[in-house]
């Protein structure tokens, strides 16, 4: 390799060598970025389930917006603190990964009465484990409601969810069945009055 005289008698690398080295480093960086993007696709998981409930939409709405009663029907959400107002902060304790409790901090994104509730949050710091949670109600009749719950997880810890994620759909359906029973029991009690 040819060397050129440098400052103080030291030799320095030829400019073409530096250009070649620069191109190699840029190419490597671009490949790494592409690799990270490919891995990022695996760091997103979404879980969604729908159930029809024989209860008025107003009854189901009262249940899903009553944070104090969540542990009675939602075994994952152990506690939610905050107000259900768009832009307001929420803090929720969630059971995950072998029944360990994690505290997420988030923000209310959407509240459309008797229609939609959506919030997003993250564990400790953004990028580690983030969640977006959306619940929608569709009025099928005066006494029937379609409830859909969608949870989207993102972040570095998503691939480590493994078996927890595989059983997530079953657990979500179990939670929705509990919500259904709760709403229908309340609707039945009201209709007997």
What does this structure look like?
The chain is of the alpha+beta class and 193 residues long. The protein folds into 2 domains: 3-36, no CATH class; 44-192, Alpha-D-Glucose-1,6-Bisphosphate, Chain A, domain 4, CATH 3.30.530.20. Helix content is 36%, strand content 38%. It has 5 helices and 9 strands; from the N terminus they run ββαβααββββββαα. The chain has helices at 15-41, 57-64, 70-73, 162-166, 168-192, and strands at residues 3-5, 11-13, 44-53, 77-82, 89-96, 100-112, 116-123, 130-141, 144-154. It has a 7-stranded antiparallel β-sheet with strand order 3-9-8-7-6-5-4, covered by helices on one side. Strands 1-2 form a two-stranded antiparallel sheet. A hairpin with a 2-residue loop joins β8 (130-141) and β9. 16% of the residues are buried. The model has no long low-confidence stretch (mean pLDDT 80).
The SSE string, one letter per element, is: EEHEHHEEEEEEHH
Tally of strands: 9
- The total number of structural domains is 2
Average pLDDT score? 80
- Runs in which pLDDT lies below 50 for 5 or more consecutive residues are none
For the report, how would you describe the main beta sheet?
7 strands, antiparallel
Q: Helix count?
A: 5
**If strands are numbered along the chain, what order do they take across the biggest sheet?**
3-9-8-7-6-5-4
């Amino acid at each position: 390799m040819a060397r050129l005289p440098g400052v103080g008698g030291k030799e320095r690398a030829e400019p073409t060598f530096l250009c070649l080295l620069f191109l190699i480093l840029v190419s490597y960086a671009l490949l790494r970025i592409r690799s990270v993007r490919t891995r990022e696709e695996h760091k997103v998981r979404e879980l969604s389930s729908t159930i029809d409930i024989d209860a008025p939409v107003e009854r189901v709405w009262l249940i899903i917006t009553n944070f104090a009663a969540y542990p009675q029907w939602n075994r994952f959400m152990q506690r939610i603190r905050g107000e259900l107002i768009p832009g307001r902060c929420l803090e929720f304790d969630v059971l995950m990964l072998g029944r360990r409790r994690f505290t997420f901090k988030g923000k209310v994104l959407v509240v459309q009465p008797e229609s939609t509730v959506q919030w997003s949050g993250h564990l400790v710091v953004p990028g580690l484990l983030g969640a977006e949670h959306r619940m929608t109600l569709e009025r099928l009749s005066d006494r029937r409601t379609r409830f859909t719950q969608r949870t989207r997880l993102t972040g570095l810890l998503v691939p480590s969810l493994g078996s927890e994620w595989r059983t997530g759909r079953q657990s979500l359906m179990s939670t929705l069945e509990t919500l259904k029973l709760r709403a229908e029991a309340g609707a039945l009690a009201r209709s007997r009055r």
